[in-house]
Every structure is written in structure tokens, then in C-alpha cells.
Design goal:
Layout lengths: L17 H10 L4 E7 L5 H10 L3 E10 L2 E8 L2 H17 L12 E6 L11 E5 L10 H4 L5 E3 L8 H15 L21 H7 L4 H12 L20 H20 L4 H16 L3 H16 L4 E4 L6 H6 L13 H4 L11 E5 L3 H12 L4 E9 L2 H12 L3 H9 L8 H13 L3 E13 L10 E2 L7 E2 L3 H6 L5 E6 H17 L15 H9 L11 H10 L4 H10 L2 H5 L2 H10 L9 H7 L9 H10 L5 H11 L6 H18 L3 H13 L7 H20 L1 H10 L7 H10 L3 E3 L11 E3 L2 E3 L10 H14 L5 H7 L4 H9 L10 H12 L30 H10 L31 E16 L2 E9 L5 E6 L1 H6 L7 E11 L2 E11 L25 E3 L9 H4 L9
Parallel strand pairs: 1-2, 4-5, 5-6, 8-13, 14-16, 17-22, 19-21
Antiparallel strand pairs: 2-3, 3-4, 7-8, 9-10, 10-13, 11-12, 15-16, 17-18, 17-20, 18-19, 20-21
GO molecular function: 3'-5' exonuclease activity; DNA-directed DNA polymerase activity
Keywords: DNA replication, DNA-directed DNA polymerase, Nucleotidyltransferase, Transferase
Protein name: DNA-directed DNA polymerase
Length: 1016
């Protein structure tokens, strides 16, 4: 009877999750159910699974609407019928083709509303009649259609509260007040479940309508085999030809990577090829290789990582640059005969080049077969409060207060309603979006499985997420972008362009384990370098005295939350520095994890221990693998693995306490850990960055600035360039490019850094200069570049016309005389055809620090001096950063410029870790506990006087701050007589703040990680 059920995937309309929908139907004894969400099939595969778990026969379709207008409801007779509707919706979503009002859908039943149906109905077309419309059937014009009618009892909500929630969703969708919501935008008040008996009783006088409804249901099914591989099967066309090509490419790469007589590598290639063939993954490897081949032909850099980087075949094909033999990578982590899905290849390109790769994939494999995974963007608390509050008509200031104080109890009845319904909306899908990197390449047209949508980024998406994709048999290709590769690529290009130096950075032998690089690494001198520049990572490198590739690989993984929160990161650091002061928990840990001192660091380590200590089967190991990669969503399967683990441990006679501790460590890895190959891929790129930073620091930092850095703001990379011997120069209209550029040691900041200058003007200036030569004066600049007075003033104040030798004050007056208040589009060339009058200006003196305040206003940081030069105090601290390692347990007084701070939750309240530079430009780190922050909070960017005690932990000093005070700048000399403005600009000095919202990590003493051998 239920031909028209909505879930909350009918965005901003339905109020029931799939789970709620099915469980309510089960409670009423309903045996068959039709899910028809509005213009989407997002929930159909979950719906099928949930129905079958509850012995309900699932049937699916779509309610097709044009905006708010209901056109018809389709009910698929079979799986092919779903594809028919998907094609119509895809044409509408992606190509703008109008939805047909009477569709030609042979494998669907089509149900029209009583308000809008065609005069001539096809055999598979019906009119849906609601219970409140039955009294209309006495009309002759409708009576004749009774034989073509079916019961229409839509399901949209379940309670009065949910009906109100539905109305709020409709108001949000239409961006109007609840009180202004038109009736036609809202469902009827009867769209909730009634028992089948009640509905049959309602329609008892119309047996034909009941019979038609039952026939429609009986003639439909949703037969679909979940888990069947649906990716493009073959690259060449057949399985045999795929294996033949893959084998040829693998052996060619084997010779290139290892030479002709490397027995161990040859044996591993043979072994992998055999398993790849047995699992039917040859096509998957070849498609990935094809994408890399195209990338290489374009001269792009890429990084191949993920579990697929464990593969020597991937290494030989050039997909990855990780040698599995060098790192003893665990073959079974990436491929084993229990595994049904191919290994993950996460492939990074520069953020500037990724779209070129995407265009190639879509063109090469066909737009009908390629799409991004979708993702549901859920309502989040702040956005919920704003959206619901607007529907209730709350003013902006009240919305601001409410969204910032979610726990506060308000007496106002309207606000209470907003909070009440806002809580109900949490976890509701709000809109569909594009997965950041996951692409599906299908064997069949994707519209067989889903309608496609076209988000603003211009690449089509499927209507379900990566979890559903995997469940129904699609494995995604992860095509990612990052700025680190852009920095490397741009540095190499800049070196060749400016200095004629060619660096083959793809040759990892020149950048891995290089002596001087390792010295930088052990000191944590890695700002600007991919993945190893954050304060936490630089501190870890120093604690480990990390001076080689293998330790860097481990460091890349132990920094991850799973290892850190379980106490294993701290224990790894201790054991690395004290290899003679610990015992292995158990002989298995020494045998399997000797390289990492018996500490589980990688996902492979967990599997090794589960198999060799816990005695689990390979199948259970695969369930653990999936849980660690965030893909295992079956809690019952994970619980069974846990039960099996403890049962097996008891059977082998392992100490119960040790087994509990080991499983605690295993659990901490779920969703927060790297496989070793992934860490190794990161380490290779980190070394490539570091090599360029060490030997070509100025070009490297210029490239970091142009790629908009990484962990830190632009100012920090500018500081690094200055510390490396670069002369930092403000933008100049005759020297600067859109991006920052370098001439010998002179670094001209790019026009893109001028916040108040439009991008098109910033790009036009160097283009115009290349075409018609340098600008001889400000007047010549005005003739050639369409700028208004405000933009011109920005150029003057930043010193972009300093080549003229005319003081800024005089240039400002001239600019006003020339342009006045006119806008660029109103400016006529004739204005300048006559010679410009010469004016005699009085000598206008400028304070030495006026330039610095101009720079802060325009760039957010000073260039012509340091922040320390702008302080009122001459005091620069009693201790410098370079001396901290010799100050263990001593109190120090320091003056620091705040670079960044990281929020960390603890059981004692919020604390922060700060990173600073001293007057010499050297970095140091601080810890600020909750009690200290209460009395001495951070007050934004700037310089602070710090008092604290030094703790040196394995060569890494941290100042635990007991007192701090922000130091005032001198008054802005440009506004010496304006009390309001003379301290205003210094508020633009920034800091980097990273917020962490998670449960507090336990302290080492709370964990009690064993350091001695367990006694059986």
C-alpha cells in the first residue's frame, strides 16, 4: 500500500532516516515498501539492506519534481527500470534538459497525482488517489479513471513534532519565514504510517484501486547483487591481455629499478603477479598505470601512496617510488586471497595540475562511466541554529549569541523552539556534495546504478557516498591534490629558469639519506617541508634525533592520533633513545617488530601481532585492516574478531593482562593510522622538499610562498627566506610578478599578496609590462592600468612606485589630483593626452616606522623591520632560543613573537602549545596549562614577555609558561593625533591557531604501558 515513502534523503523535506522508515514499517507488520525519495536514489541500497534484514520486500523508485511541482512518481519494475529514471534525472541535473511531463519508461510504473495527469494513460501509468480525495470520485470526469487508480498514501514524517520539523525544513529550503510558507510547499498532515488494515478499510468501497495497487507491488522487485565488482574490468579488453601487458610492464620496470639479476625482487614480482591475476586486479593496476603514464608525459610530479604502495609491481610500474624490499613492506597488507577489493592507490598531484589529470580520466574512460563519489553534507550545530532561527524570524544578533552559546538555557519561548528543533536536525543530510578525491570508473554506464548530479566544480557526482559505493561493488580511485608537490615542482622550475640548474628531483637517490639533509632533519629545521614542518613533527624529529630515512618513515606514522593517544609514540621515543633500557613484551614482538623496538607503529604491525601473537586467521586480519582504514563499519564483525583474539590468546597460554594491553593498543589504531608504505611515501616527499630547502633555500621558500605555504601563514615562509639570506622586498610594479619572484638574493613579494588589489589587476600589471615595457612613472602606470584611487593608494603605500624616487606623501597627493574620486571605468585616456601640470610640493617628512605600519595594514606583517623593532620596550629577553637545551629545570624570561598555537584538550582543561621566534629569528616552543591560561590568556598575534620553566625532553626543550604578557607596539606614527586609530593597525598582526576537538589523551602514567617482558 505504501508506494510513496520519503526518507530524509529527500533533502529538506523528509524527516525519517532509512532505519526509522524500515523499523516503523516492521512494527506495523508491513511486508513490502517502496522508497521514492525526491529526485534521488541516495538511500536505495541502504534501504534494500535494511528491508531484507527485517523480512520486508524492498521496492524502489523516484518521486520526480520540477522545483516544488510534483510531476509523477516512478516505481521500478526491476533494476533496469531504475536506470531509465536515472537517465532522465541525469539529463536534467547535468545537461539542463527539461524533465518530461509524460515520460517513456517501459520498465517503470508511473503514478500521477489527481491534480495533474495526462488524458491518455499508458498501460504502465496510473493515478494516485489519496484518502482525502476519495470523495471526489463521484465526479463523472474522475469516475471513468477509477480503473487506472492506485492507493497513494505518502510517508514523510511520523509524529506531530516531525511534521513541524518538516515545515521548518521547507522554510529553510525556500529561505522564508515559517509564517510565510505556502501550503503547496508542505506535505499533508496525514503522511505518516497507518496499518495496512486501516488503509484497506479506508479504500474498501474501491476494490479496483486496491487490486491495482497490489498488482503494481506484485510486479516490482529490486534484485541486485551487492558486493559484485563493478569497476571497469579490463584495460585492454580481456583478462588474458591485461595480464600479458601487466607482466611485460612489470618486468621492464623490474630491470629499470633493480637491474637484470635481482633474485629477491624477481621472486616478489612473480608472486604478486600471480595473486593480482587470481584476484582479477590486473585491469585496476593498468588503469592506474595509464593515469600515471599520462601524468609523466605532461611532466607532472606525483606521489603514489596508500596500501598499494606495498606492491613491488606498483613500484616497477612507476605508480609509487617506494621500494618494498628496502623497507621490508608486508605483502599481505595490500594483497591477499581473502581480500575482495583492490588495494588503495592514493595519488597526489600538485593542486595546480589535478584538474588536468581529472580531464584526462573523464575523457579517456568516458563521461558515462566516470564520476566522483558523492557525500552528504550534514546540518552542523551552528548552521542549524542559524537556519532554524531565520525560519523563526530571529534577528542576526540573537542568532550570533545563540550559535556561540549552544549549551545556554534561554527563557525566550521562540529561542527554546529553535534549540528544540535544531537538536532534531543534527546528523540530517543538508545537501549533496563532491567527495574530495574519490573517483569511480565503471564497467557499465553509471546511470544503471544512480542518477548523476553536477556540483559547481564541474565534474559529475553519483548520488551516494564512498561507503555505499564499496558496498555495491565500486572501488574508488583517489585522485588528490596538495601544495607540497606544487612547492617542489615550482622550485625545480624556478631553479632552471633563474639559475640554469637542472635538478632531477624524481631521482630519489639524490635526496634520500643525504648527509646535510639529515643534519637539518635531526635539528627539526624543516619549516616549509611537506608533512614534517608542524611544531609537533619538528619536536618529534628532534626527540628522535632523526637522521635517516627509516626513522623518518616511522616518525611519519607515530605522530598519528592512533599511535599517539595509546602512549606508543612516547614509548617509541623512549626506546629509540634508550635501546638497552627496555624488554620486549613477548618474543613475538621482538621477532615481528624488532625494527620499531616492539612498538606497533604501522597497520601492518597490528596485523602481524594479531596473527602471530593472537593467532587470528587471515580473514580476521582483513577485518582488522578494514577497521584501521576506516572502512570496517560492522561492529558485530569487529566484536567477533575481539572475541576470537582473547579466546586464542587464552588457548596459547598468554597472560590475560598482556593480552588486554595488546588489544587496547590494537583498538587505538582504528581509523587513525598509516600503513608503512603510506608513511614511506610521505617520507620520500618530505626528503625531496628538504633536499631543495637545504641546497636551494631561497628558491624553495619563494615556491612555498607561491603555493600558499602549508602549516603556517605567508609571514613565516617570508621569515624563513630572510633567515636563509634573502633580501625581502615589497611589491614593485616594475619588478614584481603576480607571484613572488627572485633575482639573485632579491626576493620581490608577489602582487597576489596585496589583499586589497583585485586578482585581474594583479595579473594585468606584469602582462602589460611584458607587452609595452616598464612603467616610467606613476602617471604612466595610471595611463596603462585601469585602477581606481583606492587601489592606487595601496600600491603607493606598499612602495610599488619607489623606483620613481618620489616620496610616498607626494605620490598620494599627486594621485588625488590626477584621479580624485573617479572610478577606473569612468577614466578617459583623453585625460592624459595633454601634458600633466607640474606642481611644487613642500617637503613632507615621514617617520622611520610609517612604512612598517603601511606593510602591516596591507600585508598583515612588516617587511622593512621586524615586529621586535616596533615594541615600546628595548628589552629582548634574558634567554635566547639557542640556549634553551642547557637550561633544563631552570626558570627563564623570554621575549617571543607568536607564530602559532595549538589547542589541546586535557583532563585538567584546555591547554595550548605555542611556537615563537626570538629576536634572533630562532624558533622555540611553549606549553600553557589551563590554570595559567585563566590568568594569562593569549591576546592575538604579536610579541609577548614569557616567564616559565624549561623541560628538556630528549634534546627538545619546552618552556612551561607560568606568566605572560602581550607587549605593546609604539603608537602608529601615521595617526599620532588620532587616539582611536593609533593602535588599530597592530591588531592585524596574525597568529596561526589550530583547534583540536577530541577526547583528551591519557597521560603516560595513566596508561601504564609495560616496559618489561610479561611472565606467563
Amino acid at each position: 500500500m505504501y508506494l510513496n515513502c520519503h526518507s530524509y534523503h529527500s533533502l529538506r523535506y523528509g524527516t525519517l532516516s532509512i532505519d526509522d522508515l524500515v523499523s516503523q514499517a516492521f512494527a506495523l507488520g508491513i511486508k513490502e515498501l517502496v522508497l521514492t525519495d525526491i529526485n534521488t536514489v541516495t538511500g536505495i541500497y541502504e534501504f534494500k539492506r535494511k528491508c531484507e534484514e527485517n523480512n520486508i520486500r524492498p521496492i524502489v523508485g523516484v518521486e520526480v519534481r520540477n522545483e516544488s511541482e510534483l510531476l509523477y512518481i516512478t516505481v521500478a519494475k526491476d533494476f533496469a527500470g531504475l536506470g531509465e529514471v536515472n537517465k532522465i534525472l541525469t539529463s536534467y541535473n547535468c545537461d539542463g534538459i527539461e524533465l518530461p511531463r509524460q515520460p517513456d519508461l517501459k520498465n517503470n510504473f508511473v503514478i500521477y497525482s489527481l491534480n495533474c495527469f495526462p488524458e491518455e494513460l499508458e498501460e504502465n501509468e496510473f493515478i494516485g488517489i489519496r484518502k482525502e480525495e476519495l470523495n471526489l470520485l463521484i465526479r463523472p470526469n474522475l469516475k471513468k479513471f477509477i480503473s487506472k487508480m492506485v492507493i497513494l498514501h505518502p510517508i514523510t514524517f511520523s509524529t506531530k513534532k516531525e511534521y513541524n520539523l518538516h515545515r521548518i525544513l521547507r522554510a529553510i529550503d525556500n529561505n522564508i519565514l515559517l509564517s510565510m510558507l505556502p501550503e503547496n510547499e508542505v506535505c499533508t498532515k496525514g503522511e505518516y504510517f497507518e496499518s495496512p488494515e486501516t488503509i484497506l478499510e479506508t479504500y474498501r468501497h474501491y476494490p479496483q484501486i486496491i487490486e491495482n495497487t497490489q498488482k503494481v507491488l506484485a510486479d516490482c522487485n529490486f534484485e541486485f547483487q551487492a558486493g559484485t565488482p563493478r569497476n571497469k574490468k579490463h584495460y585492454t579488453g580481456t583478462k588474458a591481455d591485461d595480464l600479458k601487458l601487466l607482466t611485460r610492464l612489470a618486468y621492464a620496470g623490474l630491470e629499470r629499478r633493480y637491474g637484470r639479476k635481482h633474485q629477491r625482487a624477481t621472486e616478489r614480482v612473480e608472486k604478486e603477479l600471480k595473486v593480482i591475476d587470481e584476484l582479477n586486479f590486473s585491469g585496476y593496476f593498468l588503469i592506474t598505470w595509464d593515469i600515471i603514464r599520462y601524468s609523466n608525459s605532461m611532466g607532472f610530479m606525483h606521489v603514489g601512496r596508500g596500501s598499494g604502495a606495498n606492491s613491488i609491481v606498483a613500484y616497477c610500474l612507476g605508480i609509487t617510488d617506494i621500494c618494498p624490499i628496502e623497507l621490508d613492506l608486508y605483502f599481505e597488507r595490500f594483497l591477499n586471497l581473502n581480500r575482495k577489493s583492490p588495494p588503495d592507490f592514493d595519488i597526489d598531484w600538485s593542486w595546480q595540475e589535478r584538474d588536468v589529470i581529472l580531464d584526462y580520466i573523464f575523457n579517456r574512460y568516458g563521461k558515462d562511466y566516470v564520476a566522483f563519489c558523492g557525500t552528504n553534507v550534514e546540518f552542523k550545530y551552528r548552521s542549524i541554529i542559524r537556519e532554524v532561527g531565520k525560519a523563526f524570524g530571529l534577528p542576526k544578533d540573537e542568532l550570533d549569541t545563540l550559535s556561540k552559546n549552544p549549551e545556554r538555557v534561554f527563557s525566550d519561548k521562540v529561542i527554546q523552539q529553535v534549540q528544540k528543533y535544531g537538536m532534531l536536525l543534527q546528523k540530517f543530510p543538508n545537501q549533496r556534495s563532491m567527495h574530495s578525491c574519490g573517483i569511480i570508473i565503471s564497467e557499465e554506464p553509471l546511470t544503471n546504478f544512480t542518477a548523476l548530479e553536477m556540483p559547481p566544480k564541474g565534474f559529475p557526482i553519483v548520488q551516494w557516498d564512498m561507503h555505499v559505493a564499496e558496498e555495491i561493488g565500486f572501488e574508488k580511485f583517489d585522485i588528490l591534490s596538495q601544495r607540497g608537490l606544487g612547492t617542489i615542482y615550482d622550485t625545480v622550475r624556478l631553479l632552471e629558469e633563474k639559475r640554469g640548474i637542472k635538478v632531477n628531483i624524481k631521482d630519489t637517490t639524490i635526496s634520500k639519506d643525504e648527509k646535510l639533509c639529515n643534519e637539518y632533519l635531526s635539528r627539526g629545521s624543516t619549516i616549509g617541508c611537506f608533512y614534517i614542518e608542524s611544531p609537533a613533527m619538528r619536536g618529534l624529529l628532534r626527540k628522535l634525533k632523526c637522521d635517516n630515512y627509516k626513522v623518518l618513515v616511522a616518525a611519519s606514522s607515530i605522530i598519528r592520533p592512533g599511535v599517539a593517544q595509546s602512549g606508543m609514540m612516547t614509548e617509541y621515543v623512549f626506546r629509540h633513545n634508550n635501546p638497552d633500557k627496555f624488554e620486549y613484551f613477548h618474543p613475538v614482538f621482538e621477532q615481528q617488530l624488532g625494527e620499531t623496538y616492539g612498538i606497533m607503529v604501522y597497520q601492518e604491525d597490528v596485523i602481524k601481532i594479531a596473527l602471530h601473537y593472537g593467532g587470528l586467521s587471515a580473514a580476521d586480519g582483513d577485518i582488522l585492516r578494514r577497521a584501521m582504514s576506516g572502512k570496517g563499519r560492522s561492529l558485530s564483525a569487529l566484536q567477533k574478531v575481539k572475541d576470537d583474539f582473547f579466546a586464542s590468546c587464552r588457548q596459547q597460554g598468554h597472560p590475560e593482562e598482556l593480552s588486554k594491553e595488546i588489544y587496547r593498543q590494537i583498538e587505538s589504531f582504528a581509523g587513525y593510522s598509516f600503513c608503512k608504505a603510506h608513511s614511506a611515501s610521505y617520507a620520500v616527499e618530505s626528503y625531496q622538499s628538504l633536499y631543495l630547502k637545504v641546497y636551494y633555500p631561497l628558491e624553495f621558500m619563494v615556491s612555498a610562498i607561491n603555493n600558499m605555504g602549508g602549516f603556517y601563514r605567508t609571514e613565516v615562509y617570508v621569515h624563513e627566506a630572510k633567515m636563509s639570506g634573502g633580501k625581502i622586498l615589497n611589491p614593485c610594479v616594475n619588478k614584481s610578478e603576480y607571484e613572488t619572484t627572485i633575482f639573485d638574493n632579491d626576493i620581490y613579494l608577489g602582487l597576489m599578496l596585496l589583499e586589497n588589489v583585485e586578482t585581474k589587476i594583479a595579473r594585468l600589471i606584469p602582462e602589460e609590462r611584458r607587452k609595452n615595457g616598464e612603467f616610467r612613472s606613476m602617471e604612466a602606470f595610471i595611463r596603462r592600468i585601469p585602477v581606481g584611487i583606492e587601489t592606487l593608494q595601496t600600491f603607493i603605500l606598499i612602495g610599488a612606485f619607489r623606483f620613481t624616487g618620489v616620496p610616498k606623501n607626494e605620490l598620494l597627493i599627486r594621485a588625488r589630483l590626477l584621479l580624485g574620486e573617479c572610478k577606473p571605468q569612468d577614466k578617459l585616456q583623453t585625460l592624459f593626452e595633454e601634458p600633466i601640470k607640474e606642481f611644487k610640493f613642500p617637503e613632507l617628512k615621514r617617520n622611520i616606522f610609517e612604512d612598517a605600519f603601511d606593510e602591516i595594514e596591507i600585508l598583515s606583517f612588516p617587511v622593512s623591520c621586524t615586529p621586535f623593532d616596533l615594541l615600546r620596550t628595548k628589552y629582548r629577553g634574558s634567554t635566547m632560543a639557542k640556549d634553551l637545551t642547557s637550561c633544563h629545570k631552570k626558570q627563564v624570561k623570554m621575549l617571543g613573537y607568536l607564530i602559532s598555537r595549538k589547542h589541546v584538550p586535557t583532563n585538567r582543561g584546555t591547554m595550548f602549545f605555542g611556537t615563537w621566534i626570538d629576536v634572533n629569528g630562532d624558533y622555540f616552543d611553549t606549553a600553557h596549562f589551563a590554570d595559567c591560561l585563566e590568568k594569562y590568556p593569549f591576546q592575538g598575534g604579536g610579541c609577548y614577555l614569557l616567564l616559565g620553566n624549561v623541560e628538556v625532553n630528549f634534546n627538545f626543550p619546552t618552556v612551561t609558561v607560568s606568566k605572560m604578557a602581550k607587549m605593546p607596539f609604539i603608537a602608529d606614527p601615521r595617526y599620532y593625533h588620532d587616539e582611536e586609530k593609533k593602535y588599530e593597525v597592530q591588531q592585524r598582526i596574525k597568529e596561526d591557531v589550530s583547534m583540536t576537538f577530541r577526547a583528551p589523551y591519557p597521560q603516560q602514567h595513566e596508561i601504564g604501558l609495560p616496559r618489561h617482558k610479561a611472565i606467563s
